[in-house]
Write a structure and sequence with these properties.
- By secondary structure, the chain is of the alpha+beta class.
- 25% of the residues lie in helices and 26% in strands.
- It has seven helices and 13 strands.
- The strands form three sheets. A six-stranded mixed sheet has the order 6-7-8-9-12-13. It has a five-stranded mixed sheet with strand order 1-2-3-4-5, with helices on one face. The chain has a two-stranded antiparallel sheet with strand order 10-11.
- The longest helix has 12 residues.
Length: 217
């Protein structure tokens, strides 16, 4: 699997916007463009990647705030670039992005409607490679992750971090659902799975199973 990746940490939240692409074809995706669209586009140009779609793991401002502008600007060349994800249960968050951005003083944030909502059991294409979609609620109701077990790779958004887990102290957060997602869907994928997460460095599922204090029963 000749998949490569680059991380652009965007906005004051230092959210890990990821560019993932197939090394042979240079075709790929942008995952969670939270803002600073000029920087994302500059990275795409420098990497010489043809972006085929934008993927969203969930509806929070720092992950989706730049998606509408990025779709618009990537599509200006004539080939539409769709937004896929998250699960429709995050619609209320995507409809509130402008207000969320204003509360934190962020400019350029726009509400967005994806071209395709995702659900458990769907697949998404990343540079021609099929990734499974898992619905992993708790941080938000419609959070999804993208996994390719045979390639040992997962894109987890804000579900699981190195040494931590996603926040659940929102009115719609659900700690039990988050931990059930991690224990029931992610850890069974195997210890060798490497993951990218929404903030900070990645890790492996095995490392987190052994050392993450939030996963100890």
């Amino acid at each position: 699997m000749a998949l490569k990746g680059a991380i652009i940490a965007v906005t004051p939240f230092q959210q890990n916007c990821a560019v993932l692409w197939d090394e042979d074809t240079q075709r790929g995706v942008v995952v969670d463009p939270g803002g600073e669209v000029d920087r994302i586009l500059a990275a795409v140009t420098e990497l010489d990647v043809t972006v085929e779609r934008i993927l969203l793991t969930h509806g929070h401002m720092d992950h989706a705030g730049g998606a509408a502008e990025l779709r618009e600007r990537l599509s200006e060349a004539g080939t539409p670039v769709p937004i896929e994800g998250p699960d429709e249960r995050d619609r209320f968050l995507l409809d509130d992005l402008i207000a969320s951005g204003a509360r934190f003083g962020l400019e350029g944030v726009r509400n967005v409607a994806p071209d395709r909502w995702l659900a458990e059991g769907d697949t998404v294409e990343i540079g021609g490679h099929a990734f499974q979609v898992l619905h992993c609620p708790g941080h938000t109701p419609g959070h999804v992750v993208f996994v390719r077990p045979d390639a040992g790779l997962a894109i987890l958004g804000d579900v699981l971090f190195r040494g931590s887990v996603g926040r659940t102290d929102f009115p719609y957060g659900d700690e039990q659902a988050l931990l059930a997602s991690i224990h029931g869907k992610l850890l069974p994928l195997g210890d060798d799975i490497q993951f990218l997460c929404g903030h900070g460095p990645g890790s492996t599922l095995g490392q987190e199973r052994r050392t993450n204090p939030f996963l100890r029963s």
